[in-house]
Amino acid sequence: MGDILNLAARYKNEGADELVFYDITASPDKRVVDRTWVNAVASILNIPFCVAGGIRSIDDAEEILNRGADKISINTPALINPDLINILADRFGSQCVVIGIDSLLINNEYYVYKYTGNTKLSSSSNRKTKDWAKEVQKRGAGEIVLNCMNKDGVQEGYDISQLQKIRKLCKVPLIASGGAGKLSHFDEVFNQANVDGALAASIFHSGKISINDLKKYLISQKINVRPVKGEK
Amino acid sequence: MKKNPIIIAYAGANLSSLQFALKRVGYDVSITSSHNKIRNASHIFLPGVGAAASAMGKIKDNFLIDTLVNAKQPTLGICLGMQLLFTSSDEGSAECLDIINGNAQIFEANKNMPVPHMGWNKIKCISESRITKNINDKEFAYFVHSYSLPECQYTIATTDYGKTFSSIVEKDNFFGTQFHPERSSDFGEMILKNFLDID
Question: Fewer CB within 10 Å of terminal CB in chain B, N or C?
Fold first, then answer.
């Protein structure tokens, strides 16, 4: 837990606008997770944060929100039981229901993948990404995080063309995920795909890009982001 | 005098992030719906929970309307809590507390402006207030809402999202922030501190 808290404090101080905590092994294992860390994170963070992974029921969601998270992100459980989206949106409000979509290009068509946290179980849900993106909005999703698997981990830039397609049919905030490798990738994704946020993990964890430098760069490129403290 | 702020509980909602934020600025704050505790509090936080109509229903069920309307202490409505200070809201055609004259209206969604308005946006201070002491103009705050109040004579700060709306209001001892100070980084903590400094 010390690692999570150190990272949370570090990113808060660096000027991150929002943090997402992924428990990517939670869905395949069907395990009960100890979520006391959520309280600890909530007590030190003064920016919004989202918890993703293993949320399969109203009780899971309620526990995480009561512990102080602002949002919950659902991925595989929404594919298995789409009504969960409606139930969560009705109970807690769309604003805290984020749907994570892992999308992979197969034969010129994007499909949604499930159980992507585990290479043995990761498989196509047989749903087309564009259909699923529409459906989750109808069911009450308040935000979509589109993880473009073809680009994930290769640090060669976000999947602009796919994000543009989904942007056209996405009326809720759309967050780009997968592919960030250098400063200009962020500029591209905001300008060309008109996304509401850009998510990245490894380049920040490794220190390859600092959030401070990224924000200074984006402001110099006339992109409207919250400046880091002390910078105007 | 020792300060004993309280957060009003009226719907079994998630209020821990506000409680944690107040702890960070130095206050142990209890969450309560007890009329006595509310009356004896030095400062009152009215958080927003769910939709306007159901929130007003819960406030009525707890017989809190008179207590709130007649509060003499500094009282801060946050997000939906701020909207409840106004006359009414189009969200479920709710009649609200009517402390400030005005009606909350929904944002029109379009391609460039998804609704809810969710994320960081700029605050523009248009008149001075104790709650914005030591605040620079054009700070960013964190918003999550689909309804908003137009600018009025009690507006302290505005924000633009397709239209200009009230992001901070003040009338007598009543204050409201449309954003979430508990999630608005150092700026939000300064707003909370300023509010708690008001006697």
Answer: N
